[in-house]
Design brief:
466 residues; alpha/beta; Rossmann fold; CBS-domain; four-stranded parallel beta sheet; 30% helix; globular; binds 4'-deoxy-4'-aminopyridoxal-5'-phosphate
Length: 466
């Protein structure tokens, strides 16, 4: 058993677990799948490695000196690594966290002594309130501050060339044939993948696991529900730069994983293999299982599980949350016989109105809509999926527009924002009908039905009350 003189010695060195139940071996075919359990690193995630590597490089380069302040923008895990290492060494640690990250991560950061600042990431990157701009300003203003910048810091992928890659090679006795990981900053896949290719003389294939709508693997850039991986693009983004920590040449191919498959795979991993891991682990594992199915027993797949499910008990690892966003449709228990929203789902596609439309255009779009109300959503040049719940900015009510035009309070050329109504309540397709009624409350006549986190139809009060 290991004895550590310092917590930094407990970074990395994580075990591999054979996933014998989920990989379906035994019913013929398929390759064995082993999971690299990064949640067993001291800070609970793969990002401990990058955090240590970046701090050491900054100290060597004289960018970080005694009394200094470490600053970083993070979905949470890199900040946790920086907080553990930084506080040990006497630095102030100031972490900007996306307002879309699970709340548990901010709580953990504070518990480790980091100062946490929440800022939005659902804005164009150039917007002064965007998380990246907020931390950049802080780094300029605070004397002795050093911005870790995991997105473009070569010490991030380098951590994986030096540690994750060699560990996996040694743990598999050089028998690994396929490495599967998600891509956030790209540090993990670029560093680990490069090492494994080099040491195996190119024999190891590297597979990126990407949310279906992420642009890394050719998606439309619309939002997805798996935190910390993929690449979202706000339609107002001026220049979409990819992180320099991501070296796309290392990735042989991508598996594109829909959110539902990612989230339910993470749930299944806990239930069937006893490993409680986060949603990005679900994406990676879903990609690994797809990969392993097409291989044979002489192959060996290693999938990297970046963090623990304990950080997501209020979100992705909660059945209520999954049901609310339309990811889970199974009954709550064997006695639950109440029909769900699925039973009253309107098969016709939902009409949404672009937030850039004029009142006249909105009215034309609303004419065929029963009830005359529709969600208003961000305009996206290329759209291959229904509008994501987080792209909905409000609603527009046809009768309110008609009245305003008739009374001369508005003109058809006015932007619809002049009469933008509230965001309509939402209900997941797997929720019971009584939940849908409760969501409507007294104020609303219709709720947006979510399937896989996306707005697919409206359910009207009349449909629920019979
Ligand atoms: N999963 C989780 C939970 C993470 O925190 C991160 C880091 N943002 C990743 C995956 C992606 O790792 P990387 O930044 O090395 O690509």
């Amino acid at each position: 058993m290991a004895v550590y003189e310092s917590v930094t010695d407990a970074i990395g060195g994580t075990p591999l677990f054979r996933l014998s139940r989920l990989s379906g071996l035994g019913d013929g075919g398929g390759a064995p799948v082993y999971a690299k359990a990064e949640f067993l690193s001291i800070g609970g995630s793969v990002k401990d490695r990058a955090a240590l590597s970046m701090v050491q490089a900054a100290e060597r380069a004289g960018l970080l000196r005694p009394g200094g302040t470490i600053i970083e923008a993070t979905s949470g895990n890199t900040g946790i690594g920086l907080a553990i290492i930084g506080r040990q060494r006497g630095y102030r640690v100031l972490v900007g966290v996306s307002d879309r990250s699970a709340r548990e991560k901010s709580d953990i950061l504070r518990a480790y002594g980091a100062e946490v600042l929440l800022a939005p990431t659902s804005l164009p990157k150039e917007h002064p309130d965007h998380l990246f701009q907020v931390v950049r300003r802080l780094a300029e203003e605070i004397p002795g501050a050093w911005l870790a910048n995991q997105y473009d810091n070569p010490a991030n992928p380098d951590a994986h060339v030096r540690t994750t890659g060699p560990e996996i090679w040694e743990q598999t006795g050089g028998r690994i044939t396929h490495f599967v990981a998600g891509v956030g900053t790209g540090g993990t896949i670029s560093g680990t993948g490069a090492y494994l290719k080099q040491v195996s003389a190119g024999r190891v294939s590297v597979i990126g696991a990407d949310p279906e709508s992420s642009v890394y693997s050719g998606g439309d850039g619309s939002p997805y529900f798996v935190e910390s991986i993929g690449h979202f693009v706000h339609p107002g983004t001026v220049e979409d730069l990819w992180p320099e920590s991501f070296h796309p040449g290392v990735v042989d191919r991508f598996e594109r994983i829909p959110d539902r498959e990612s989230l339910l795979t993470a749930r299944q991993l806990a239930r069937e293999e006893g490993l409680l891991a986060g949603p990005s682990s679900g994406t990676a594992l879903a990609a690994a299982l797809r990969t392993a199915r097409g291989l044979g027993p002489e192959d060996l797949v290693v999938v990297l599980l970046p963090d623990s499910g304990r950080s997501y008990l209020s979100k992705a690892l909660s059945d209520d949350w999954l049901r609310q966003w339309g990811f889970l449709e199974e009954p709550r228990d064997a006695d639950d016989k109440e029909p769900t929203v699925r039973s009253v789902l309107d098969p016709a596609p939902l009409t949404t109105v672009s937030s850039r439309a004029t009142l006249g255009e909105a009215l034309a779009a609303l004419r065929p809509v029963p009830g005359g109300v529709a969600p208003v959503a961000l305009e996206r040049q290329e759209r291959r999926h229904p509008v994501s719940a987080s792209e909905v900015t409000g609603s527009i009510d046809g009768s309110a527009v008609e009245a305003a035009l008739a009374e001369g309070r508005a003109r058809p050329d006015d932007p619809l924002t002049a009469l933008l109504g509230p965001v309509l309540p939402t209900v997941g397709v797997g929720q019971p009908l009584s939940d849908a009624l409760a969501a409507l409350g007294a104020a609303h006549s219709a709720a947006v039905v979510l399937v896989d986190g996306r707005a697919v139809s409206l359910v009207h009060r009349s449909r629920l009350t019979g």
